[in-house]
Design goal:
By secondary structure, this protein is an alpha/beta fold. It is built from ten helices and six strands; from the N terminus they run αβαβααβαβαβααβαα. Helices cover 42% and strands 14% of the residues. Strand 3, helix 5 and strand 4 form a beta-alpha-beta unit.
Length: 217
Amino acid sequence: MAPPDSWDDLDAELNRLGEYQWLVFTSINAIRFFFTRLFERGLDCRALAGPKIAVVGTATAEILKEYGLAADLVPEEFTGEGLAASMVAQGVKGCKVLLPRAKKAREVLPEILQENGAEVAIVPVYQNVRPKDYDLVRQELAEGGIDMVTFTSSSTVTNFLEMLGPERDSLLAGVKVASIGPITARTAEKAGLAIDVQPKTYTIPALVESILDFYEK
């Protein structure tokens, strides 16, 4: 993970936080980068007194608590679609929504909110950057040293497969695949991967438990 190329967009929105009815976080990284910049600007959590805060799931809500804030909305289904549905159910028509997120991300959440009358400002607060040196991973796969690969987002699937290049099928032969949830699984399946493990709750702790159960059985 890396900061965005420029903080200008976020800085502009931090100057008018009071105009927003909703502040929405869809990942732990979005929270950490957002608050890092908030504090760098000499602001603190009092600047967030205006908007309600929505998060994509319980893990994101727990990270938010580290900054002394409780989420006003946590959806039952921990996906962008689930979050959008929960917000729409509360009524978003005419609301201004601030969405700090990755530079590249799925558009389903802002699109659903906009279709239901919300005004959404999308602000990049971090970007996914592939490691420059991944020879060790390729070597471990080639030597059979990796039994399972785990994916926690669609971008991890895409970047990982691009790193493997044309040898991906041979390198992944016999390797099991675990996905944190259905969206990530769908990306992996479209890329030709079969999913062996997927938790019922879309969090990293639940993914870990599912992997343990998989090998115990």
